[in-house]
Amino acid sequence: MADQTSKETRKKLIALGDKIVNDIERSENPNIEIPIRALSNVVFDKKANQLTLGNKTSKRYYFNVAHSKKFMQTMMVASFCKSLLDNSIHASIRDMYYNLKRTLPDSDENTIDEQSESDPLIVDIEVALDILREQLHLTTDRKGIVAGNVIIQDRGDSIDWSKLGSGGWSIPSTVEEIDIKKVDADFVLVVEKNAGFERLHEDKFWQKHKSILIGTGGQPSRGTRLLIQRLHDEFKLPVYVFCDADAYGVYIYSVIKSGSISLAHVSDRISTPSAKFIGLTISDVFEYDLKKATIKAKDVDIKRAKEMLEYEWFKKNPRWQKELNLMVEKGIKAEIEALSHRGLKFMSEEYLPDKLKKKNFLD
Amino acid sequence: MADQTSKETRKKLIALGDKIVNDIERSENPNIEIPIRALSNVVFDKKANQLTLGNKTSKRYYFNVAHSKKFMQTMMVASFCKSLLDNSIHASIRDMYYNLKRTLPDSDENTIDEQSESDPLIVDIEVALDILREQLHLTTDRKGIVAGNVIIQDRGDSIDWSKLGSGGWSIPSTVEEIDIKKVDADFVLVVEKNAGFERLHEDKFWQKHKSILIGTGGQPSRGTRLLIQRLHDEFKLPVYVFCDADAYGVYIYSVIKSGSISLAHVSDRISTPSAKFIGLTISDVFEYDLKKATIKAKDVDIKRAKEMLEYEWFKKNPRWQKELNLMVEKGIKAEIEALSHRGLKFMSEEYLPDKLKKKNFLD
Fold first, then answer.
1. Between B102, B145, B159, which is nearest A164 by CB?
2. d(Cα B70, Cα A38) in Å, to the nearest integer?
3. Residue B156, helix vs strand vs coil
4. What is the CATH number of domain A145-357?
5. Do B94 and A177 touch (CB under 8 A)?
6. CATH topology (fold) of B2-139
7. Global model pTM greater than 0.90
8. Which residue of B has its CA nearest to A171?
9. How far is the alpha carbon of B57 from chain A, nearest alpha carbon, in Å?
10. A267 confidence band (pLDDT: 50, 70, 90)
11. What is the tens place of the pLDDT at every residue in B240-271?
12. What are the residue boundaries of the structural domains of chain B, listed by start?
């Protein structure tokens, strides 16, 4: 998988270079066509249930005083990425910035002054060539842990996610490149909080309920989102997301499911539209007798919940309307740790099994 | 190891309970003696090179209107921890809070209202009984990754840290309980940043230089600090810490080495006084031609560097005085990613090998 992806990405980068050479040979103004990423070109694709980019594009020209430097920088970034692929190595976007920053001979002009100049160019290349940053061998910060009956192949190692003790496998950003060899699981359970991961991992939830357990440690990293999507796409595993009963928890779920505005250009590559929300809901607070373990919602929680009531993908669903309205009306929120109020193993042995049995999910 | 530690911790908790029962039977006012953790009782132990607690203690009485509730809460926490040990399970401090929070019968009085009430009680028990929170089976948030030629035993799994692909082993908070079976390494390299870990891991630095590579992802978690200490103590491995050349990087080093004020009561258990700072230094910026890759220091960086010049453990060392003064005078800082300015593999293949060869460390 790694080799094939890398070959295709190289081909696209080379085609970009060839196109510019062609422009020059035909005495045309060398240019690159790049889809526009402004909010005006972000649309919600109802069929795919995802945020995505519209059709508007713009051209970046070499002979144009306003474009020239950016054009040069874009070529530098593309060339840097090609050399990463040629050498089978990876770099962070900060590494790239430091590597490309230099002063042009006989001048005071730097190729790049700040990382804020080079970062958007990566996204330009992602959208222009329809590839992921990860395929360009640019790494993003890692976060997230996984455990379950899965065997993968990665950098020559065969790794069994069921045999990693209390630790678990730390999810890198290079998830695109691992080979998932064997999966013995019926679903993926994604937990927003490390404390929830520890609880479920210690209670061997993934063993008892034949599942793959992923802890995101807050908003999931790109690597973790990619992993969730791959497990869903390649092994047809349903994905259940388990978050706090507050606006932030619901937002984490919506990012896993539908993507985010800032990453709308890669939604189809790193989000999982069929993901379902297993809990915690405000309704659960009443159904499972957790009233004593709720927290008073802050103004910002209420404000966010009200905003979400207007999101297209929550608007059409009466159950989400009900839950978001409950947040606003009751003025409370509840963390997944609140389940410990009913006993430490209540989460693993009663709450989640009950939700799974009743298929009590929000979509 | 896990069993032995757990047995001793249980013994201490039971002794605490027995002592209270004894007080009652002898008609004495039941009380617990707790070392004082205020700054007035935090001292720098020059011999051990660590922050530690002084000898001042205070007593918490049951029959004392000002102490009574806290006394009850302390007993609840101790009893909760004993039940964790009895059942061989773990819980986060937030889980504990939710679990212990309840309303006393026929009253409006809660056992605990906020987590800010229960958290300090854990520390009280830690210092009163001279045990670690981890030994009480209370987990802290995890962070940190490790790779290297090490085989451990954890929850029945045998885990080889050299065979985990690009991922690495995610360091849990329960490091006290793992058995480190086999170590084939000459030193431990601790890297402040995940990007640095990725670089060195991909370049197989730990293989080529027979070391254990630990990525802390910023300020290290308690689990990661415990792991560093165990590798040093049990296998006599030197520990080298690799951070940004700025006040925050130096602070991370000082926490690994000497502990922090807020955790002074456990310094001797989770810090590594012999740890050395391998880089990055401002001197390195000039020595390795990285001037183009520095960043202008912010006011807060300069302020912190000036404060550190006055820290006892930096004051006595002329090399630290020189480096901290350079930060102030030059008004610059440099990240470890700045080494990419000299090429992506410069860190793994030139800079670190050169520093190691010359034993160019700060103590």
1. B159
2. 56
3. coil
4. 3.40.1360.10
5. no
6. Arc Repressor Mutant, subunit A (1.10.10)
7. yes
8. B167
9. 33
10. confident
11. 999 999 999 999 999 999 887 777 777 778 89
12. 2-139, 145-357
